Amino acid sequence: MGYTKGTAMENIRKLMQFYFLTESGTSDHYHQNPELFYILKGTLEVKIDDKVYELRQEDIVLINANKRHTMTGKEGILAARFEIDFHLLAEYMGTMQLLFWCNTIVDKNAAYDELRKVLDQILARYFERDEKGAFDLNALYFQAAHILTSNFLINMDDSRFENWDSQNRIRIKNIQNYIQANYQSQISLNDLAQRLYLSNAYLSKYIKKNLGMTFIEYLNNVRLFHAVDEILYTEKNITHIALDNGFPTSAAFTKAFRESYHEAPSEYRRKMQKIEQEEHDEKELNEKNRDRIISYLRIREKGEIPEVSSEELCDVYADKSEKHTSCTYRACNIGDVYSILQSDVQEQIKLIKKRTGMQYIRIWNILSKEYCFDENDRYNFRKLDQVLDFLLENDMRPYMELGNKPSLFMYTPERSVKQEKTEKAEQYKYEIFCKIIRELCIHLVNRYGEEEIEKWYFEFWNDPFLNICEEDGAYYQYFDVIYTNLKAISNNIKVGGAGIILGYETCICNKIFGIWKNRDIHPDFLSFCSYQYIAVIENGQRYGRKSIDENYMSNQIEIMKEVIKESGLNVPELHIDEWNFTVSNRNVINDSCEQAAYIIKNCMDVSDRVNLMAYWHALDTYSYYYDTDCVLNGDSGLITGDGICKPSFFAFWFLNRIQSNLLKKTAHAMVTGNGRNNYTIVCHNYKKLTSRYVFSEENEIEIENINQYTDDEDSLNLKFCFHNIKNGKYQIKQYYVNRKNGSVQDLWRQLGYSRELENSEIDYLKSVSMPGMKMETVQVKNGILTLENIIMPQEIRMIEILYRYSYPE
Questions:
Q1: Among residues 502, 514, 527, 503, which one has the least CA distance to residue 565?
Q2: What is the C-alpha to C-alpha distance for residues 244 and 246, in angstroms, rounded to an integer?
């Protein structure tokens, strides 16, 4: 395949350079720098390790440094290859641990559109040969790198949901930092062991277990990485390169180099110089290819790139509607089932039901040894009955998780505190579990009746101790026990699992679904957790990152649906049994207007793609801990421990007012009606999280700087024009929550974020933490009603348009 250089070669190193790929053919590559391929026209087949991806127009793939890959360009290929200088990027990022996951074939992310737009601008600069064009080009390189690092960089020090303790993470970081700082010296395992106050034998095993290689292998990898950079970009002789990078002799360097690259350093240098000369030869695009690129860019400019606008016009036709099921998102998590026995919890649940219309309450630890057995170790479900009776009396139904879920208090995904002694101690042995489930099923049907429990959901999550990824994993045996006992009562009872984490555990789903498909018993629904984290497998290791994809949940659901389809497993329902942008119980964004806008946006985007969404979670009391000593603690509950409704509560209150007929849905608004001249609009001005959020610890975000973690501060002008509406008088009521109205977090600011509030001050916050409201009456003529609203950043708003009947005069 042939490359045409996109920019003139200069002596100084650039963050990025690009080349046009215009000829068909196959080539094998192995680069020190990451490469990004962007397909303009035609087809490019890329093989990375043992995986083959077929890229078509507008597809993007980034190949990490030192990753051997084969590319086959088909006839008519037109693509751009962007080479990123690894060492310059590492300098800017302050780490050598750079790994990207950027592949439109297997991933979905709103940031891909942002990246395409910048790449198009870079390509357009090819035709600008003046100094200004070069200046703009460098700025665009940094803009592209910013998008890549903010949205697609995997933190190699971060294993989300692995629950590593902080001592382990600190130790690994210390090992890596010590080697990075001293690789040029003659360091040994003994030096490092003494520094960490560990024995040589223990440290050797520890490094092998956690880094996947021995100490000397890891040290040589670091030395080789720096040495290869000097081979490629300097004229230093091989001996100097060896000694300058910590190798005792040039022979030791050559030996280590051959083991990794299968050739001598001097041979590698000559080969790479030849390749670079071929690829970097300065030559102009021929006229045909110039015209193809210009044609592509013109098409993109005409409308294939969505432009961000601060104005949105929504035309609504009152005589055109479709049925809308709003019950999808009327579910939330409470947590431990027996916490509902507390009077304050019951009062808050009743308030949630009254205002938000929640229909399903997800609960777990049903089979707790503390509550399900009497003093003689006989089954006793009296306490459970009290909880279930309370829910049914208040017109709510249980979503019962029948496994043991540990009560975790999460600072960040990798730093948690277990509220119970051990997870394993609570898991019943299989024989005992069978007996308990049988007794529970008999009790439930005799007390509540077959017809009632057919309306409930029964779930079993994938406890790590039950090995769901193994064909003979205990998970399936336990699940089958629940399934067969409940189905013996009624085939209409719904049983499902397994609480798989979207984005983070997607990589294991093919295996899980394949195992389930080959079994006799299949679930009635598949359940998933949605938190904004992504994980990838690289060299057998799982790495994670936070995602700031504004369409994260809808994108991950679509990816999961494709995985389910490929597996051949046929499941009637799809549930999101936990969802939030974070798993942290100490993230101040949970308490903010941003959270309310996030809820509205996702319920609008996702509710028609799944059968049920259970918000994580209902009450701040779930994560009470020693540090819950002020009015707001960064927990994701809808109501504070003091009973103050947060912006997130009002998001569900607004959604509860949505009516049964859907008239229009846009990116920021949903318009519904009741078929009787009354209409409800729910809208938001959600602003996505920024790169600063990606690189911050969630529990360390300062409430005073919360505005710095969202994308922009632009207001949104939402215009609604109703057509074919009944003439007459209408009352228009508007309710809104923003940083000036209804936000307890912003009202708390007025009290200096005091940690010691008196009861009267708590009562004050409770009384003023209500949505702002305004009303007006309008007269409709000619069947047209126009409304215009300026929506503040992160604001949510509900607008009710009510026809006022009157007798003719």
A1: 514
A2: 6
* The pair of three-digit structure tokens given for residue 661, joined into one six-digit string: 């007929």
- Tell me 262's DSSP state: S
Please tell me the distance from the alpha carbon of residue 80 to that of residue 71, in angstroms, as a whole number: 13
Cα gap 316→640, rounded to integer Å: 38
Give yes or no for a contact between 734 and 774, defined as CB atoms under 8 angstroms apart: yes
Q: Is the pLDDT of residue 413 over 80?
A: no
CA–CA separation, 771 and 593 (whole Å)? 11
Q: Could you give the angle at the alpha carbon of 51 between the alpha carbons of 50 and 57, nearest 5°?
A: 150
What band does 730 get if pLDDT is binned at 50, 70 and 90?
very high
Expressed in percent and rounded to 5, the helix, strand and coil fractions of the chain are 40, 25, 35
298: left (phi over 0), alpha (psi -120 to 50) or beta: alpha
Residue 142 in tokens: 């940094």
Q: Which tens digit of pLDDT belongs to each residue from 138-162?
A: 889 999 999 999 999 886 544 434 4
pLDDT the model gives residue 109: 93
User: Please, which pLDDT band fits residue 304 given cuts at 50, 70 and 90?
Assistant: very low
Task: Write the pLDDT tens digit of every residue in 433-480.
Answer: 999 999 999 999 999 999 999 999 999 999 888 999 999 999 999 999
Q: What is the pLDDT of residue 362?
A: 97
Query: How many CB atoms are located within 10 Å of the residue 353 CB?
Result: 17
Place of tokens 């592509």: 296
The whole-angstrom separation of Cα 97 and Cα 155 is 7
Number of H helices, E strands in the chain: 24, 33
Q: Which of 652, 4, 700 is nearest to 283 (CA)?
A: 4
Question: Do 406 and 420 meet the contact criterion of CB atoms below 8 Å apart?
Answer: yes
What is the Rg, in whole angstroms, of the alpha carbon atoms belonging to the chain? 30
Q: What is the mean pLDDT of the chain?
A: 86
Q: What is the DSSP string of 36-98?
A: EEEEEES-EEEEETTEEEEE-TT-EEEE-TT--EEEEEPTT-EEEEEEE-HHHHHHHHT-S-E
| pLDDT at residue 169 in the model | 63
Q: Helices (DSSP H) in 569-713: which residue ranges?
A: 593-606, 647-656, 691-694
Phi, psi of 311 (to 5 degrees): -135, 140
**CA-wise closest residue to 233 among 13, 84, 9, 10:** 13
In the prediction, which pLDDT does 10 show?
42
Other Cβ atoms closer than 10 A to 605: 18
Helix, strand, or coil (residue 360): strand
Q: pLDDT above 70 covers what percent of the chain?
A: 88
- Residue 537 has a pLDDT of 73
Whether a cis peptide bond, with omega within 30° of 0, leads into 134 is no
**Cross-sheet strand order for the sheet of 728-737:** 322-323, 661-665, 669-673, 678-684, 796-804, 728-737, 772-780
3-state SS, 441-466, equals HHHHHHHHCHHHHCCCEEECCCCHHH
Side-chain-side CA neighbours of 324 within 13 Å: the count stands at 26
Q: Is 670 helix (H, G, I), strand (E, B) or coil?
A: strand
Q: Which of 399, 715, 424, 751 is nearest to 575 (CA)?
A: 399
What's the whole-number mean pLDDT along residues 279-307? 60
Query: Cβ–Cβ contacts within 10 Å for residue 178, how many?
Result: 15
**Per-residue model confidence as pLDDT tens digits over 214-241:** 888 888 888 887 888 788 778 888 999 8
Bigger pLDDT: 498 vs 2: 498
Q: Distance between CA atoms of 776 and 729, rounded to whole angstroms?
A: 11
In Å, what is the CA distance from 294 to each residue of 41, 117, 285?
A: 12, 15, 12
Q: What angle do CA 555, 602, 670 make, to 5 degrees?
A: 120
Beta bridge partners of 790: 717
β-partners of residue 789 are: 718
Residues in Cβ contact with 756 at an 8 Å cutoff, skipping those fewer than 6 apart? 630
| Number of residues written out for the chain | 809
